[in-house]
Amino acid sequence: MAENKNPETEVQRTQEDINEILRIRREKLAQLVEAGKDPFTITKYPVTHHSAEIKAHFEELEGKEVVIAGRMMQKRVMGKASFCNVQDLEGGIQSYVARDMIGEDSYKDFKKYDIGDIVGVRGEVFCTKTGEISVKASSVTLLSKSLQILPEKYHGLTNTDMRYRQRYVDLIMNQDVKETFIKRSKIISAIRAFLDGEGFMEVETPMLVANAGGAAARPFDTHYNALDEDVHLRISLELYLKRLIVGGLERVYEIGRVFRNEGVDTRHNPEFTLMELYQAYTDYHGMMDLTENMFRHVAKTVCGSAVVPYGDVMIDMEKPFARLTMLDAVKQYAGVDFNEIHTLEEARAIADEKGVHYEPRHQKGDILNLFFEEFVEENLIQPTFVMDHPVEISPLTKRKPDAPDYVERFELFITGREFCNAYSELNDPIDQRGRFEAQEELIRQGDEEANHIDEDFMNALEIGMPPTGGIGYGIDRLVMLLTNSPAIRDVLLFPTMKSLPNDK
Predict the structure, then answer these.
(1) Spelled out in words, what is the top-level CATH class assigned to the domain 39-150?
(2) How far apart, in whole angstroms, are the C-alpha atoms of residue 299 and residue 190?
(3) 168, 117, 122: which is closest to 143 by C-alpha?
(4) CA of 323: how far to CAs of 25, 285, 385, 445, in Å?
């Protein structure tokens, strides 16, 4: 009869085994120190090549000496000769380590090295009988001793919560994760190159601000001890960048962190990367053209094609992006024509009929936007510019001259998600003050996401801002799209997590 295993006993035994392995690793380090071979005294190592480079240029490197370094991920000891796999930035490469080539003492040391140790290998590039490109070691150097245990190779680091908390382990165990973040860096570089080519100037603006405006979001609050003032972390880059347009810097952009005191889900992280740009003497149509060209350029540069996979669909950024008004979108997907709705009472009635929840403070334009969110967004899979939003939800945007209840604004939607938000910027200081005053009234009614009047910004507008187009891009969502990542945490190296007891 089979013995019943006690789960608690098994866990205890596993922990005891782990503790013993950790003890042995520290003991090995102590022995190295005692023998005058402390790896932590090594300050540099003359790396000449990386794994992918050696494999890609094997024909010209065969028989030549290279120096590689990285983390030992596998090791097979077979008497007088062994194999190990060294993982570096670009991937992994096998090394053949023989006693007769590195010396008896060095080989004894090598046999004691652990998975996870960081090693340097000097040797000759060759191809094994099985066809694997490798490095035949003439010396192996222990560069750093790993005192912890990596996850088991074939199962990897599968605990999602732990992957996000210990991203350094995630990057070691999952090559696709490393590739995602390498691609993220390339995406941001491609954006900068594109904008530089369009004559834009990169700038930096404050993160700690007295008035957190420019978006509908709750800020994080803190206190500045030196000035004895309460300040906020910025929620947007907009109002300071517009000040620079007033100052005569005609094309500016900033890529930086913003902070919004809101929930965490697959699309939102309270700390995220935003890019905003402003261009004098253009409007939201100019911003549409720039956006379409930039997305296409970045996709081709980073992915090699403007047609990219996301989930089970192919997103086509090669062909012209669709353009439709919010009114037409709601009419198409919700079957409601807000051109025929003339009063707030009529808007509330149709919302009640369609089951769209609204609050007492919401006006007709707010309800139109609620219909859009309820019925339209999820259907906009291929790139689509949604234009001409109601003025009630656009406090910083220029009105449409022929339809003053609406504004010259668009949002770009792909995969049912908003990727950017753009305006013909409001440069009329009288109209802007009226919009800010309406926002102040919303604050009095309990809206924690409304904007306070920014008097210094108002002063800048009164000095005079030229006609301007402006836009804000969620960089993280663009990275999600171009890396086929389902959640924002997958493209943030260190996403926001609730602290564990030991972290506090």
Answers:
(1) mainly beta
(2) 9
(3) 117
(4) 62, 11, 5, 35
Contact 330, 371 (CB under 8 A): yes
Tell whether residue 440 is among the known ligand binding residues: no
Query: What confidence score (pLDDT) does residue 151 get?
Result: 86
CA separation for the pair 84, 297 (Å, rounded): 41
Structure tokens at 203: 């700038």
Question: How high is the pLDDT of residue 475?
Answer: 97
Match 């003439």 to its residue by tokens.
138
Measured CA to CA, the distance from residue 315 to residue 137 in angstroms comes to 47
**From the candidate CATH numbers 2.30.33.40, 3.40.50.720, 3.30.700.20, 3.30.930.10, the one assigned to the domain spanning 173-321+383-497:** 3.30.930.10
φ, ψ dihedrals at 58, nearest 5°? -60, -40
C-alpha 202/C-alpha 192 separation (Å) is: 8
**pLDDT, tens digit, 9 for 90 and up, residues 16-58:** 888 999 999 999 999 999 999 999 999 999 999 999 999 999 9
Handedness of CA 242, 246, 250, 252 (dihedral sign): negative
C-alpha 360/C-alpha 363 separation (Å) is: 8
Does the global pTM surpass 0.70?
Answer: yes
For the chain, which residues make up each domain, given as ranges?
39-150, 173-321+383-497
* pLDDT 10s digits, 306-352: 999 999 999 999 999 999 999 999 999 999 999 999 999 999 999 99
418 is in an annotated binding site: yes
| Cβ atoms of 118 and 69 closer than 8 Å | yes
Write the Ramachandran bin of 142: left for phi over 0, alpha for psi from -120 to 50, otherwise beta.
Answer: beta
Report the SS3 class of residue 452: coil
